[in-house]
Write a structure and sequence with these properties.
The chain is an alpha/beta fold. The protein is built from ten helices and five strands. The chain has two domains: 149 residues, Rossmann fold; 76 residues, no CATH class. Strand 3, helix 3 and strand 4 form a beta-alpha-beta unit. The radius of gyration is 19 Å and the shape is globular. The structure holds iron/sulfur cluster (3 copies). The site of one iron/sulfur cluster has 13 residues, from helix 1 and helix 4.
């Protein structure tokens, strides 16, 4: 039986998620042995447009990106979005909160008028094409990545948690960050990272995106309990939740 042909593509991003793949070290040899890598700009010089599985890192920020991702989708049987940039637009979506001319001017100064810098609002990959599987996080969780790929190779459907980070956090018996006066997004953020940030004494800032049905009423109740305003919560949501997700009105 022939091995599935796999190609990795990057769009607007820091390439930190691809680095997570490279950092898999010994495990990457097992994975690469089980597939036929045909395209991976960051790690190989060969390149082919004939692939079964497309792995996408980065968000869609320009009209030509939309054409490119549609072309990739049309060739791939399975498309996996890796990392917050690809799964929800990530940090790149911050610019959606501002006027695009102001964004160009702020980043590039006078050079911002150059035509090729013409930019559209940032989109997650699934705002342009169908995404079959998502590997969440910024950077993506490498264990979740190998789990998803292994499931695909075995013909199984991967199951990604759809419960909040708080569940994993409580199981680790962490003291809640709210007790320190911090606005932690764990109650509405998708678990699967093992509550990495609260376990290291940081609040969760929502890099895995919202659970499918976030309990906003409970989140508001928590804000009330700690004497904090909904606006303060909204300000924390901007980092990974710009122009998307549930309404807090
Ligand atoms: S999700 Fe984070 S680590 Fe991954 S490419 Fe985007 S910014 Fe970089
Ligand atoms: S620290 Fe955050 S993730 Fe942990 S229980 Fe509190 S709100 Fe939930
Ligand atoms: S705790 Fe929150 S911010 Fe930290 S890795 Fe997990 S989902 Fe991301």
């Amino acid at each position: 039986m022939s091995k599935p042909r796999v190609a990795i593509f990057d769009f607007a991003c820091c390439e930190g998620c691809q680095l997570q793949i490279v950092n898999l070290e010994e495990e990457i040899l097992d994975l690469i042995g089980a597939v036929d890598m045909v395209k991976w700009r960051e790690a190989m010089s060969e390149s082919s447009e004939d692939y079964d599985i497309a792995i996408i890192e980065g968000s869609i920020t320009r009209p030509e990106d939309e054409d490119r991702i549609r072309s990739i989708r049309s060739r791939a049987k399975v498309l996996i979005a890796i990392g917050a940039c690809a799964t929800m637009g990530g940090l790149n979506k911050l610019k959606n909160n501002f006027d695009m001319d102001d964004v160009r001017q702020c980043v590039y100064g006078d050079a911002g008028r150059m035509e090729h810098l013409d930019t559209a609002p940032t989109k997650a990959v699934d705002e342009v094409v169908k995404v079959d599987y998502k590997v969440h996080g910024c950077p993506m969780n490498p264990e979740e990545f190998t789990y998803v790929v292994r499931c695909l190779l075995m013909g199984k459907t991967p199951h990604i948690p759809d419960y909040p980070v708080c569940v994993e956090c409580k199981m680790k018996e962490n003291v809640c960050r709210w007790e320190y006066g911090e606005i932690c997004l764990g109650p509405i953020t998708r678990a699967g990272c093992g509550a990495k940030c609260p376990s290291a004494s940081f609040r969760c800032f929502g890099c895995r995106g919202y659970v499918d049905d976030p309990n906003m009423t409970a989140a508001k109740d928590v804000m009330d309990k700690y004497g904090l305003s909904v606006d303060m919560l909204k300000s924390k949501l901007v980092l990974f939740g710009s122009k998307q997700g549930p309404s807090y009105e």
